[in-house]
Amino acid sequence: MAEQVWTLGSLLDWTAKHLAQKECESPRIDAEVLLAHAVGCKRIDLYGMRHGEEASADIRKRYRELVSRRLDGAPVAYLVGKKEFFGLEFKVSPAVLIPRPDTEVLITACLDLGKKHPQPRIVDVGTGSGCIPIALAKHLPKAQVTTIDMSPEATAIGKENAGKHSVFDRVRFLQGDVLEPVASETFEFVVSNPPYIAHEEWAALPAGVRDYEPRLALDGGPGGFDVFTRLIEQARERLVSGGWLVIEIGSPQEKQARAKIEAIVDYELFPTILDGSGHPRVLKARRR
Predict the structure, then answer these.
(1) Measured between alpha carbons, how far is 274 from 146 in angstroms, rounded to an integer?
(2) N or C: which terminus of the chain has fewer CB atoms within 10 Å of its end residue's CB?
(3) Could you tell me the fold of the domain covering 94-287?
């Protein structure tokens, strides 16, 4: 009996079904991204002229290894070393949080406000891959952006991404805790996607998050408010009058998070911004 000839198209179809049977969350997309990486092409190419191309033994071997690691729980973004966010491609590794689509609403909120400032000074806390400050710098060409992260490994990746997107001259990278590295400076914007997973909920997280992504970027301590509480207090001193605090939250935290900001009389809190799924996602407050 002749050995089966695997084309890229048949390999993709079989793998998507296999991942679905193993209850992967997005089997078709995972199969596409991993195969495109193994082949060294764009995802769209898998449905074009290359769909009927025979998959070489080397491609099948690379793909099999990637799929095996995916089934072990490794996130696709770490397997391919990149993730798209707000139309830009960012290098990622297990040293940084994988950018999420939900965070894009934070970018949109900041851009709507930032375009009203001729040269906004922005500081981002908990920078990770740099997706937030770099996206803001790309779309606000007069902005001067400062980033702060405690992790030297994350800072290094953020610098790479800033260079890749040609904003390195306008994005300053600092290491430290919350806003301590800029204790003598003021800004028009303080933005952040801080760690907000409640410490007591850590064990219940999906394995792909809990076992692979950096705990420093996710674990927000008791109730998930450790960094949040310190950030909103320190931001009051770092924001100019009329400046904006724009911060991402976990949707179950909305009521308590709003109460914490409302308790600081220097802030005027605005309606919560919802993400694409209709969940509470971003709070914005103006410094009086």
Answers:
(1) 26
(2) N
(3) Rossmann fold (3.40.50)
